[in-house]
């Protein structure tokens, strides 16, 4: 079972273009604006400027999904700096965070009857999977050391 990542983006929700660009970066392990732009425009039905790609990348940095690293100047050392955009969260970590967020939202309903009706609709395989998850959680909690409390005399 994958633990929750220590680093979490400030905002988990992403727009369609944000998600598409993030998936390109995950697939390549990092990319420049030009690489992302070229990949998107490989679809002849798409029309998107490099400036739009840069804007989306900057939003993903503000949401703490990405970071950028300078690769120096553009062609022949002239022009603007070229940046490589790197993921701060892996695709697997993003899945774990999304699942955790969905579970928290479901449990936040706080209505036992609703949760029970959901559980009642599960088939045998789903119930076995839930029981396995509960067993893993119990095992994890048993193996974790409790936090030390300070006692003042």
Count up the helices: 6
**Outline:** elongated
**Radius of gyration, whole Å:** 22 Å
Give the DSSP E fraction (strand runs of 2 or more residues): 5-15%
Percentage of helical residues? 40-55%
Average pLDDT score: 84
Please describe the biggest sheet, giving its number of strands, its sense, and whether it closes into a barrel.
2 strands, antiparallel
Termini distance? 41 Å
Strand and helix order: HHHEEHHH
Uncertain stretches: none
Report the count of strand segments.
2
SSE class: mainly alpha
Name the strands of the widest sheet in spatial order.
Answer: 1-2
Question: Could you characterize what this model shows?
Answer:
Strand 1 (66-73) and strand 2 (81-87) form a beta hairpin. Helices cover 52% and strands 10% of the residues. A two-stranded antiparallel sheet has the order 1-2. With 153 residues, the chain is mainly α. Helix 2 (33-40) packs across helix 3 (50-62). It is built from six helices and two strands.
């Amino acid at each position: 079972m994958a633990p929750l990542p220590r680093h979490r983006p400030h905002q988990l929700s992403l727009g369609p273009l944000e998600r598409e660009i993030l998936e390109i970066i995950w697939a390549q392990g990092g990319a420049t604006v030009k690489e992302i732009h070229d990949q998107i425009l490989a679809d002849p039905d798409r029309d998107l400027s490099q400036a739009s790609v840069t804007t989306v990348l900057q939003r993903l940095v503000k949401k703490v999904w990405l970071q950028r690293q300078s690769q120096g100047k553009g062609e022949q050392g002239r022009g603007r700096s070229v940046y490589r955009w790197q993921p701060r969260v892996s695709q697997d970590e993003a899945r774990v965070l999304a699942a955790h967020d969905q579970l928290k939202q479901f449990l936040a309903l706080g209505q036992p009857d609703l949760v029970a009706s959901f559980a009642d609709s599960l088939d045998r395989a789903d119930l076995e999977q839930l029981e396995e998850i509960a067993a893993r959680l119990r095992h994890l909690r048993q193996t974790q050391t409790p936090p030390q409390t300070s006692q003042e005399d």
